[in-house]
What does this fold into?
Amino acid sequence: MSRNSLPRRWPLVGREPQLQDFDEVLRDPRRTGFLLFGPAGVGKSRLAEECLELAIAAGHRIGRAVATAAAASVPLGALAHLLPADVELSEPVSGFAAVARRLSQPGAAQSRMVILVDDVHLLDATSAMLLRQLMDAGTAFLLGTVRSGDVEESVAVAALGHGDGVLRADLDEFDRQQVETLLERVLGRSVGKHAVNQLFTTSGGNPLYLHELVLGAVEAGVLTCDGEIWEMTVDQLPGTRRLTDLIRSRLSVASPAGRQVLDVLSLCEPLSLDRLEMDADQRTLDGLEHAGLIVVAQEERRTAARLAHPLYGEILRADMPTRRRRAVLTRQMQLLRKSGARRREDAIHLATYELAATGTADPALLVRAAALATHSREYPRALGLLQAIPQKQRGFQVRLLLGKTLYEAGEFQQAEDVLAETDAMAGDEQEVLAAVLVRTQNLIWGLGAPYEKVLDVIDAARVRISSPFGFRALKVNEAASAFAVGEFTHSLAACADLEPDPGQAPDIQMWLMAATTRAVALAFLGRGEEAEDWARRAIAAAAASGDQPDILATHEAALQSILALALTENGRLAEARAVGEQALLGLGDTRVHTERRLLLFHLGRGAMLAGHPGEARRRFAEVVRGSRPHTAVVLPMALAGLAGAAALQGDIEAAEAALAERNELPCSTYLPEERLGEAWLHVARGALTRARAVLTAAAQDAFERGQTTFEAILLTDLVRLGGPREAAAGRLTEIADACGGRFHRARADLAAAWAANDPDGLLAAAETLETIGADLLAAEAASTAAALLNEAGQSRRANDAAARAEAIEARCEGARTPALMARHDLVQLTRREHEIALLAARGMPSKNIAAELVISVRTVDNHLQRVYAKLGLTTRRELANRLLP
It folds into this structure.
């Protein structure tokens, strides 16, 4: 996509209320004006043009004027082109009256002339006086834009903006959600959260800056689409020449003393006012704040200043000479050391300043700063600090920290290279354990290495361990590795003797690893309530342990991710989503971090269980985009989920592409739940028999592995697609009795009601499932109940059930399933009729349908004739229009 393919004028996302306000004001004869206030670049002129289009559509005559500082020196300079040429204005009273008469059109449908004035605050006093008289006379309606911050000194705004007749609308920068909505409308596809975060943070929500950033990123190939989602390929946004010129022009209002302050902030923000005032007077700081170039706010216990916009820093740094940069950094180092460098982040600042100013720094300071930066997920900064340490001074701890940071930054192969060396140089038992724990995480969650290789690494460490604690730690590590490849029973058994109280454990980090491993294993073994209990215990234990910047610290986001999984399996889908979303915010803008991918995967999986394929598709697409080119465990699962979500929305091409990529991966494991994508692709093609065969085999596989959660999900989908409902219902009831949990019980009740063709049972199941948050299952249950009630002649109840199904289905983001069609048709096709109808609707000839279902062509044609009769149709085209999305 190039600059030319992006729309010239972007949608008015978030500005619709102001547009509606203008429409109402324009219709009210008592109103005389509409003023749009806001900072530069916020879209005032763009919105004003849209308002003017409304005025034209309503039949008003229009005029345009642009006020400038130059025109302000000439009376009526901005309005001269709108005034009648033969009107004498030397006598203001009679001249203004003559202008009013000439501009008015008595008897016209819309007699008032709508005059758009850009930058009203720059109008000269004479123009403002004339406009005011025209407004008061009902001759003109003022549509104006005003730049915030310039109002206090403007005589024109005071003259034109007073009174009840003029409505004021304040425009702010876009919030994050508005930026995301705008990007998706402009780019035509989902946009990854990292890209949204980068563009929102860098633009500050300013529409003009955002526009230029998107143009620059697309042209430079930094913002790209893989066919499913737009995402950033690097973390640096290039911008455009126009954007650079705009910002340089904005910064040019600063005085020489103010420019020095801006330079300091561009390298070291935020800085306390006390620190800034050591080199700048209060008048200079006040001037910068008044000009909107800096923002001063209370941050914890200090008053700090920062640049008013993130892009200012980039331009200031680019324009700063090397000598000036070095002088600023050296001065700030001196001031920081003089103050005692007591704040936790001061070590990072000192190391960064010293490295940037001199090219080197004390290795001990670099290590301490890098550890803090890694803990704060500032991975580029941490890597820069670590890589500045000379090779001969990189001992075990430095290499371990470097390997861990590379892993968390998504540089998995580099991490393995460093960690393999670190593992080999480990001396005592503590170092062996530290190295192997990080290395196995990287092998599984980063590189997707075969389980056998991971076990080889653990076995190699075992011969260097002698203490009971060491063997226990390796056992827990093996358990954590086992659940990643689907060995849930083995994983749970390895953690069976976990101390219930973390205070009794010899090592809190090891206890946390064991507790979270246990929680995940329990969740996938169908024991959601126990999983939730252990996840909450782990979160409480981590909180009680304090904020330890240990290099092996378990991050809160990972714990919250596991809680989200447990809540999902326990039938608390809305709460699971809220927990996951909050955890994502806590991760910040870490694009490739393993924790982020796992969180996104759990959110996508939860969205699928909720029956929201659009949201699920976006989440899975982000996981896929962030995982390539590596084949970590989460990538094949995300591709399968993406296929299922796309198939539910009827996008067969996208589903096929995702499954094709999934099947080409050299995966070390294949979980039964992954076959849902394949099954729903068959459904989208109309091949229900194949879909049921896939689900039956996958459910049997899950049963044999003891993966009860997967089995329950697969059996439920088998019921939805008309499989052997009585047998499935019986097994789902066994699962509910054995495992507990309201989601298992709701699935069992749904299957039992479906097997018995019980509309009352289906409606009860729909109510329970809607409460759980499983909207698509609830809509299908209510839809099927409506068809059964209609067939039984209970039309009033059928209509009520259909209305309920429709209301729930509205939340399902375009999902199309065979069960929903029951409500749309309000006739009860048999399972075979339904399957044949779908295949025929997709253009498959009767001969091919017969071969697909292993029946005769005559049987196919007979079924089709009955379908046509039930639906009141005569052709396959009508059938396609009726059944396909």
Notes: The two ends are 29 Å apart (CA to CA). The chain has a mean pLDDT of 85. DSSP finds 44 helices and eleven strands in the chain. The first strand starts at residue 33 and ends at 38.
